[in-house]
């Protein structure tokens, strides 16, 4: 080998391969992907900024790259399969999701009406019911045209009627024989509405009176002007009978009775205009004046007066 000059380049001998020849030099004009199209708009690939949707001023969309056509076939997109429906059918196939059907408005309204009528009927049968007062026999406690609320719970649970209660009861011995309700008649709309509790019950076989005596009590009237005696004790009825202290507690006549077991003795507060126990006993005799406890519907717990025609609030 010949001697080299101090400033001579040191390198391999001619014909001897150098390992550096195996590493190609980087050319910024050539794409690292091995094509000559790496430059975008005349700019080298490594100088192109990425701005979240555009690359070096050129829009990047699905199916296009660097402004040129992107062959979908060359790089197919793999679609994920739909998840299987976990609900199997009887045949083993996949069941379709059932669509929720909306209830028609008219059917929904009809359902509300049926439920309301059912609840109202249950309430008036077992709890409280309204009744119409058709006569003046209980004035001044109730007047003709008033409505009264009657508690039925006490009767259903076995509560015994007590003295002084105002009760509604079924006619025990044809006290209202001449009434239309006792004779019967065709069913009309008010009767149907009353049956479900929308209107107050106006049946004429129902009466309203005050309990004066229960089983075992001895009731006596010695004169028309009273007072009424119960078990030998005079009753002060001035707080509820018609005309108060000037009223006539025994207006229907004199009598002495002992109330049988399972019966009641009832009188109207308007004694001079009441077909009550005393009137029926004196006119018919026997047990015509007694009311079986089984005929009792319930006792009055409230009075509605403003609905009657002659009331200032109802006229």
From TrEMBL:
It is a single-pass type II membrane protein. The chain crosses the membrane at residues 109-132. It is an enzyme of class 3 (hydrolase). Residues 56-69 have a biased composition (Polar residues). The keyword Transmembrane applies. Its EC number is 3.4.21.89. It is found in: Cell membrane; Membrane. Keywords: Hydrolase, Membrane, Protease, Transmembrane, Transmembrane helix. It comes from the Bacteria. Residues 1-98 are annotated as: Disordered. The keyword Electron transport does not apply. Gene3D superfamilies: Umud Fragment, subunit A. Residues 108-303 form the Peptidase S26 domain. It catalyses: Cleavage of hydrophobic, N-terminal signal or leader sequences from secreted and periplasmic proteins. Belongs to the peptidase S26 family. NCBIfam families: sigpep_I_bact (TIGR02227). This is Signal peptidase I. The lineage of its organism: Bacteria, Bacillati, Actinomycetota, Actinomycetes, Catenulisporales.
């Amino acid at each position: 080998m010949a001697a080299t000059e101090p400033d001579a380049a040191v390198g391999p001998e001619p014909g001897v391969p150098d390992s550096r020849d195996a590493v190609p030099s980087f050319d910024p004009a050539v794409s690292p992907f091995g094509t000559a199209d790496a430059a975008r708009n005349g700019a080298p690939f490594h100088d192109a900024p990425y701005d979240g949707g555009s690359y070096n001023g050129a829009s990047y969309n699905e199916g296009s790259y660097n402004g040129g056509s992107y062959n979908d076939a060359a790089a197919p997109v793999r679609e994920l399969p739909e998840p299987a429906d976990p609900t199997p059918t009887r045949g083993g196939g996949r069941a379709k999701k059932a669509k929720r059907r909306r209830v028609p408005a008219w059917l929904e309204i009809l359902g509300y009406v049926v439920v309301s009528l059912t609840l109202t009927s249950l309430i008036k049968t077992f709890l409280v019911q309204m009744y119409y007062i058709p006569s003046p026999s209980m004035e001044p406690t109730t007047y003709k045209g008033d409505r009264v609320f009657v508690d039925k719970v006490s009767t259903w649970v076995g509560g015994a009627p007590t003295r002084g209660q105002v009760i509604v009861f079924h006619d025990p011995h044809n006290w209202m024989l001449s009434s239309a309700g006792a004779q019967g008649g065709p069913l009309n709309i008010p009767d149907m509405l009353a049956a479900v509790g929308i209107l107050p019950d106006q049946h004429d076989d129902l009466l309203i009176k005050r309990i004066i005596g229960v089983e075992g009590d001895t009731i006596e009237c010695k004169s028309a002007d009273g007072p009424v005696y119960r078990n030998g004790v005079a009753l002060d009825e001035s707080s509820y009978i018609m005309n108060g202290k000037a009223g006539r507690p025994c207006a229907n006549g004199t009598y002495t009775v002992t109330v049988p077991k399972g019966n009641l003795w009832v009188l109207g507060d308007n004694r001079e205009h009441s077909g009550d126990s005393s009137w029926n006993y004196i006119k018919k005799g026997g047990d015509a004046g007694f009311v079986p406890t089984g005929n009792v519907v319930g006792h009055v717990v409230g009075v509605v007066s403003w609905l009657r025609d002659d009331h200032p609030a109802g006229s």
